[in-house]
Amino acid sequence: MPARLLTVSMQYRLAFMLISMSTCWLSSSYASEKVSLRWQYKDGREFVYQIQEQTTLGSERIGLKEKLTCDLRVKCTRTSAKETELSVMIERIQLSVTGDVGNGAVKVEVDTRDGTSTGSGSQGLREHFSTIVGSVISLRIDERGRAGQPKLEEALVEKLRGNGAKELAGFFGDPVSPVGIMRRLHAMFIVLPEEDVTDGDTWDHADKWDALDYADIVFKSQYNYIGSGERSGTHRVGLKAEETMSMSSSPDIKSEGKVIGEFLFDAVDGCLEQATVTCKHVDFFESIIRISRTPTGERPTR
Predict the structure, then answer these.
(1) pLDDT tens digit string along 45-55?
(2) Helix axis angle, 122-132 to 163-172, nearest 10°
(3) Given this model, what pLDDT does residue 249 score?
(4) DSSP-assigned states of every residue in 78-144
(5) d(Cα 187, Cα 274) in Å, to the nearest integer?
(6) CA-based, 20 to 30 A from 36: which of 22, 125, 229, 271?
């Protein structure tokens, strides 16, 4: 091969090697980049969310299918260096129920905003939800999202402890009971890692919440950082968890569930953008909770 062609060939090989090395270096640098995830609170700040929960009680043959929609507003009422006090107000509840419990078809529709209540038991449901709408649930939370036991207003506690509320919860299950309220709140407040993270990193968290006289709920969660979201500044976090409910009246009676989920967290705005969380308690119920954030002051689209 002529010397000139040999020199050109070597130049091409050298250029190819340099490009390959640069590509590998850039890929490695990008993959190892760590991100910091923190909730951002300040007095008076508000977050507006819509929660949609689809729940299956029982089986396909004998059971209920329920769709619950809650519009709620979360407000920072007082912020300190260590934690923030939040107030959560549910502004609207919609519930649609279909199925068969063995004595005929069930079809119920309730909407607290326009007063809709159709089907057997719907009037009691509407009155029950009307007590919840406008009530304030308070909790304390730190910048990682670790929340203490939520506190309900005393009037709401008395209502939920009443026989009428317990009968509704016994029939309609999770969407109506305090257990459901606690589970939906818990799904909203993703716990973030203590340190900066990169793809594949994991972190654990465990806590226990009391759902009035209904049950104690223990959450054992493992989160994992999946990577950046499609929109700049957003990040995807996965969840695998165990959820154990102990009946308050009979602590030895327990129901154990498996939870999986994925969250989209906005690191620039310091809040949850959206989430999907699926929970299954074998022979008891299965639910899918979807959470979406809307700009403050705007209502979620239907």
Answers:
(1) 999 999 999 99
(2) 110
(3) 77
(4) EE-SS-EEEEEEEEEEEEEEEEE-SSSEEEEEEETTTTEEESTTHHHHHHHHHHHTT-EEEEEE-TT
(5) 10
(6) 22
Q: pLDDT tens, 141-184?
A: 999 999 999 999 999 999 999 999 999 998 998 889 999 999 99
Locate 219 and state its tokens. 């959450």
Q: Coil, helix or strand for 9?
A: helix
Q: What CATH number has the domain bearing residue 286?
A: 2.30.230
CA distance 181 to 151: 11
pTM for this predicted structure: 0.85
Interatomic CA distance for residues 144 and 193, integer angstroms: 7
Tokens of 246: 């102990």
Dig out the tokens for 19 from the structure.
């490009």
DSSP annotation of 214: T
- What's the domain range around 287? 35-294
- pLDDT at res. 2: 53
Both structure tokens of 163: 């026989």
Q: Looking at residue 271, what is its pLDDT? A: 95
Helix (H) or strand (E) holding 17: helix 3-31
| Residue whose structure tokens are 């090989």 | 13
**Domain total of the chain:** 1
299 within a domain of the structure (yes/no)? no
Residues lower than pLDDT 50 in the chain: 3-6, 8, 14-16, 18-30, 298-302
Query: Is the residue at 11 inside a domain?
Result: no
Task: State the Cα–Cα distance between residues 301 and 23, nearest whole angstrom.
Answer: 44
In a domain, 45, yes or no: yes
CA gap 261, 282 in Å, rounded: 18
